[in-house]
Structures are given as C-alpha cells and as structure tokens.
Amino acid sequence: MNRQEFIQEAALRLIAARPDALMCEIHELAVSLANCVYADSVEEPSDPVRPSPTATDFRDDHVQVLLDVINSTENQAKSDFEAAHPSWYYQRRGYAITLRHAFDINGIATVGDLLSRGRVGCLKLPKVGRKSVEALDLALKELYGITAW
Questions:
Q1: What percent of the chain has pLDDT over 90?
Q2: CB 52 within 8 A of CB 63
C-alpha cells in the first residue's frame, strides 16, 4: 500500500467513525496519520476547494453574516433591474428570509453548523430549495472562498 492509498483508506475509516466531521478535517487527520506512519513530513498539495487551515475561525461566525450578504446581493439585483427597466416591477426573492426561518427551526446558528450539515443536508431542510442553496453558495464563496461544502 502506497502513501496515497493509505490516506484514502484512512479517510474512509475516519468518515465512518466521525460522520459529523467536515471533509477538510478528515483530510487533515488522514494526512497527519500518513505522515506518522510513513515517517516523513511531506505536505500534501493544498486543495483549492477547501479553506486554508488558517481560516478556521470562520466557523464561529453567526449565519446572519451569510444572510446579510444574500440580502445585499438581492438588493443589488433589484437596483440593477429597476435601473434597466424603470417602469417594470421587480419582486424580491427573499432567500435570506426563507433561510433565516429554516436556520432558526433547525438550530443552525453558526457557519460551522451550516457546513457540518453540508449542501445536500441543507437542501433537505423544509422550505429550502435549490435557489436558496445557490444563494448560500454565492455567499460562502464571496465571504470565505468556499466552493464545495
């Protein structure tokens, strides 16, 4: 078994042992275990999809930060539309309001809580649809550079 196969096997076992852990945590644990077993300190190339290890304090941020970004994006879209079509009516989407209610009902208070549920878990929440999750995708990318969660 080579080092990469060991990391993959360790990651699979860690996922089974800790299903609530984030994938970036699983990866870091598997790599550090491989470093111990293979007795080298070669660092794996960083994955552009996962956040950098120094950006771990964002998990304690309140989800309202994300909702504010979604709200401002919606307001900007409304302003742009009204500037282009002054006589037309623009109905605001309200994804931030929908998500706020879903987060309150399901006990999601921090960005870490949201990330632990994942994108698919968030889609399973009542009243949360694809467009709401796409708005969350944009907010996570804009604030933290997270493209896969």
A1: 38
A2: no
Q: Which two tokens stand for residue 1?
A: 């078994």
- Please give, one letter per residue, the 3-state secondary structure of the chain: CCHHHHHHHHHHHHHHHCCCCCHHHHHHHHHHHHHHHHCCCCCCCCCCCCCCHHHCHHHHCECHHHHHHHHHHHHHHHHHHHHHCCCCCCCCCCHHHHHHHHHHHHCCCEHHHHHHHHHHHHHCCCCCCHHHHHHHHHHHHHHHCCCCC
Burial of 24 (C-beta count, 10 Å sphere; 0-12/13-18/19+): buried
User: Is the Cα dihedral 133, 137, 140, 146 positive or negative?
Assistant: positive
pLDDT in tens, 34-73: 888 877 544 445 454 554 444 457 788 899 999 999 999 8
Q: Is 110 helix (H, G, I), strand (E, B) or coil?
A: strand
